[in-house]
Design a protein that fits this description.
The chain is mostly helical and about 260 residues long. About 65% of the residues lie in helices and about 5% in strands. The protein has 2 domains: about 10-70 and about 165-255, no CATH class; about 90-155. It has a two-stranded antiparallel sheet with strand order 1-2. A hairpin with a 2-residue loop joins strand 1 and strand 2. The longest helix is centred in the middle third of the chain and has 27 residues, at about 125-155. About 35% of the residues are buried.
Length: about 260
């Protein structure tokens, strides 16, 4: 409907396509998404607690910097990437769990940091705290593995593939946040276009393909909302993924990811 179909802005808009398909909105529409000014304001207020331009800008910055998801997710996935790189790809879940425990125990004894004020040393963590952290990360590794198994069964991931990063969860929402802020008149068209372009560029650094991006987004969404119910939080995104990976007019089939 007159929106961009190619180029950096279109690529950044396509990063929000999972939510667009799920919500029934145009993937390449920068402004109004069929809800209007009042509804966009309500959406930002109820879902994000955003009522001002400053609040919108803060949320957008956090999403573009991939700071809105749990750092422990990044730790677990980053550790697996390192193991996969060092050992040829396949990562046994038991070894992954053991490696997480080893890293967390080795980092619990305090660290020495050289900063502007000189050398400082952090205190060792209590053993009980370290063991609780290990237990939490190992539970997370189990959750990630079970979601990935389901995504392989549903065709989101290929056989032997795994999720490299959940940055897509933030960057996909950043693509939409830019547009919600425009619709709510918290930002300008130029600001929204700049933000979706940044989202697209960041996505290319963290992910390898639209499929890889999609799997990262779905995993992040499910870790945040789904609690392993494999309910609407999961199913809605799998349905949107299938549409985007198969329909001839899909941006994911017409815009190169890299």
């Amino acid at each position: 409907m007159g929106g961009p179909l190619h180029g950096p802005v279109a690529h950044g808009l396509a990063c929000g396509a999972l939510l667009c398909v799920s919500n029934g909105s145009l993937w390449n529409a920068m402004a109004w998404h069929g809800r209007g000014y009042n509804e966009e304001r309500r959406r930002l207020r109820e879902w994000w607690g955003i009522t001002t331009r400053e609040g919108w800008q803060s949320a957008l910055r956090s999403l573009l910097a991939c700071e809105s998801h749990g750092s422990v997710w990044d730790f677990a996935l980053g550790l697996r990437r390192t193991i996969a790189r060092d050992f040829g790809g396949h990562v046994d879940i038991g070894y992954w769990r053991q490696a997480a425990a080893s890293v967390l125990r080795s980092s619990s004894g305090g660290t020495t940091v050289l900063g502007a004020d000189g050398v400082t040393k952090t205190d060792p963590r209590p053993e009980s705290e370290t063991e609780a952290r290990i237990e939490g990360v190992q539970r997370l590794i189990g959750r990630i593995s079970r979601y990935e198994a389901r995504m392989r069964a549903d065709g989101v991931l290929g056989e032997g593939q795994y999720v490299r990063s959940v940055d897509a969860w933030d960057l996909g929402r950043a693509s939409k946040m830019a547009r919600w802020g425009l619709g709510a008149r918290f930002g300008t068209l130029e600001e929204a276009e700049s933000a979706v372009t940044q989202a697209g560029r960041a996505a290319m650094l963290s992910h390898r393909s639209w499929q890889d991006f999609s799997a990262g987004y779905i995993l992040g969404r499910c870790l945040h909302f789904d609690e392993e119910e494999f309910g609407d939080w999961y199913e809605d995104m799998v349905s949107a993924h299938r549409i985007l990976m198969s329909e001839s007019g899909s941006p994911w089939l017409n815009i190169p990811f890299q």
